[in-house]
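sanity check this record:

:::
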Amino acid sequence: MTGIGIIGAGHFGAVHARAIAQVEGLEIVAVCREDAEAAAAFAAEHGGRVYVNWRDLLADPRVDAVVIATPHHLHRDVAIGAAEAGKHILLEKPMAPSLAECDDINAAVARAGVHLMVGHVMHFALPCLKAKEIIASGAIGKPLVGSSAMVKFWMESNRRPWHLSKADGGGMLMTAGIHSLDRLVWLMGSDVVGVNALAGTFFHDQEADDTALIGLRFADGGIGQVRSVGYREGVFDYSMELQCENGALRLDFDSGIALSKGGKWVAVPDSIEPDWTHRAIIREWQALLAAIRGEAPVPVNGQYARHVVSIIDAVYRASDERREVHPR
């Protein structure tokens, strides 16, 4: 049995706890939150010894691996501490707010020889898995042009002050739009080498962005666009479309995948599932457990996650400088 510690036993920590409970071979043995009363309530529901200091949790010998679901600006220190304690890591996205912090995490993981997986959950969502399978089959050829959207209500009930602060790694793009960016980069199958962008705060009184329109140039010659909008009032849009050499693919989380045939969209069977987030996170934990057991490599590693952060860094620079820039 692999013992799991949850660092950040709050809203998304509970999402992980519910998934962990359904993965054979995993057991929640420790949970951590600064609010002792809230941590105790979390443990009463999900199990595990209660800690209010993450360093104390990392000293618990029953903990083999941790999920880090803390505010973004805390990722670096907690991830490095976990690596140095010899714990495997599932680190929630974004990997960290800055490239320097990402580099520090990757260096610590390499020194320690532990497994790090970054929680880009799109890699485990059924519609995305089905899209990746179709692309890999060659049925519609190589993706050439892609568009991906994350347009949603921003001020959800779990929104916290750090989400509104650029210095703390907040903002719509780092928090939610990153999913649409990651999904496009992964399915296009090529690194991003150029970024154009318009970004800013249009709907809310906050320092961090709530909107970004992004143009991407890929190393293999493809191009893409991403919409990241956290609206005050509107309609949810989580769709994407890929124009490929020999056809097109459309993806959303209501109807799944559709392919272009004869000028019409034709649904792909078995490409959507209810409660997709929960099921994707179950797959995420199954993948990390397989890596820990030496059965498979980590599917979303620190180098890939750093590249995603490098694109977001380039978005902000491109918007400020009003020119195309290269991810660093």
